[in-house]
Amino acid sequence: MRSQARLFFLLFGLIGLVKCDEDEFLYGKFPPGFKWGLSVASYQTEGAYQEDGKGVSIWDTFTHQTPSPILDESNGDIACLSYHKSEEDVQLLKNMGATTYRFSLSWARILPNGTVDNINAKGIEYYDKLINLLIKNGIEPVVTLYHWDLPQHLQDLTGGWPSEEMIPYFVQYAELAFSKFGDRVKTWTTFNEAWVVCLIGYGEGVFAPGIKEISETPYKCAHTILKAHAQTYRMFDEKFRPKFGGKLGIVIDSGWYIAADENDPKDVDAVERALQFKHGLFASPLVFGKYPDIVRKYVDEKSQNEGRSSSRLPTFDEEWSTFLSGGVVDFLGLNHYTTQMVSAKPTRGPPSWYTDQDLSTYQDDAWPKSASSWLRVVPSGFRHILNWIKNTYGNIEVLVTENGFSDTADADWNDDDRVNYFKQYTNNMLKAVTIDGCNVTGYLGWSLLDNFEWASGYTERFGVHWVNFSDPDRTRTPKKSAAFLKELFTNNGFAKVDKKDEF
Ligand code: GAL
């Protein structure tokens, strides 16, 4: 398989010079062995929030507040009931021809207090069963250790991710997960979207744990998460890779950015700055051992101008820099949804990650909308971000860990807009892989199921299966998009057909 894939890249690398029109639909196949599947996350789907010894997470606490910070005042107490529906969910994946499934572990389900001195056997059992079912059905599990549901006890004990006290707790939890599941799980990711955790959770306070400290705290949070990832990588390398093999990465979210005026060099520079503040801030330390130079320069200068004695962006000491510069990721997970326009006009507001960049972003009104205010449909952006990652990090392996489209709570399974989104976006990924030679090894769409969409509750549906949230049994119905993806997965690309009913 490996050499087949290499030959494929070589062949298409050669054709790489052939330019393909951005709007032209490309027929063709992905490399052999390309992974296809769907993603979910524990808090958004599992429910069973206090069953079988599960501890309380910051999302349980956050959603149970009065008044509720969630748009429809809902929570993930029941969500999709996936804790009780492993067989059914695996069957849905199988029906779609998926070869991969990405889910996250609920830390508090395994370790109710977050600490390894109290292991909840029932939690381990649940994931054991799910992993075994997947493997039995020929579906590879891709496991995320942290998709935002921190055990409340650890938040109380340490203050959460802005505190470096979190590092050993995370590493011990990761070690337990590797030791219990590493014999069967070969693809691991540590953190899902640290940008969202740090900016929205600990900066704006719109997500759990609801902390509003915009100026310095998000950078501290990012710094801790990067160190926790790196120490986990070292531990994985030393204790588990020799025994079980496998790969460890991190999931970074990034949109694409387009210069407001492509002839204005200031706007063009602002695009690169936006990318480095969004993606580079996380990937660069793990690949090159340091924050991107441009990020360092801007935050240091701003901090100095504010009369601070040190930068709001922390520094890795020499020991850390040396350790990190060896590279501490095997691949980069990418969550990509949308695109922004960028102009070099600074954003006003208190000093923060946003104002530090000296730019502003907005979306073009002409771009088709979704049900999420931040998500507009710009398929070519996917090809661009994949190429930027290829060029920035030496064609590092990329696994697309999320990509998807939302419609409203009252939408049904006739989800033509979602079909169109997936079709156009994955076609741009095909161009990135086969024409541009981007090293993408798989694609996991978001999401297998409609689910609890964080601060939006159940007002936005992202699933390829429609979930009936008023039915106590949370019945699932495949949408048109499930059928579309099935065809894509089984063809491993887009086959030219004459049929009228072709997607
Ligand atoms: C991502 C997140 C997912 C999901 C998705 C759609 O930021 O990782 O959990 O909510 O966005 O909004």
TrEMBL record:
Keywords per UniProt: Glycoprotein, Glycosidase, Hydrolase, Signal
Gene3D superfamilies given in the database record: Glycosidases (3.20.20.80)
Pfam families registered for this protein in UniProt: Glyco_hydro_1
InterPro entries assigned: GH, GH_1_N_CS, Glyco_hydro_1, Glyco_hydro_1_AS
UniProt keyword annotation of Magnesium present: no
Top-level division of the source organism's lineage: Eukaryota
EC number(s) on file: 3.2.1.21
PROSITE patterns: GLYCOSYL_HYDROL_F1_1 (PS00572), GLYCOSYL_HYDROL_F1_2 (PS00653)
GO terms for MF: beta-glucosidase activity
Annotated signal peptide: 1-20
Keyword Signal: yes
Biological process per Gene Ontology, one example term: carbohydrate metabolic process
List of catalytic residues: E402 (nucleophile)
Self-association and partners: Homodimer.
PANTHER family: GLYCOSYL HYDROLASE, LP05116P
Family, per entry: Belongs to the glycosyl hydrolase 1 family.
Protein name: beta-glucosidase
Organism: Folsomia candida
Source lineage: Eukaryota, Metazoa, Ecdysozoa, Arthropoda, Hexapoda
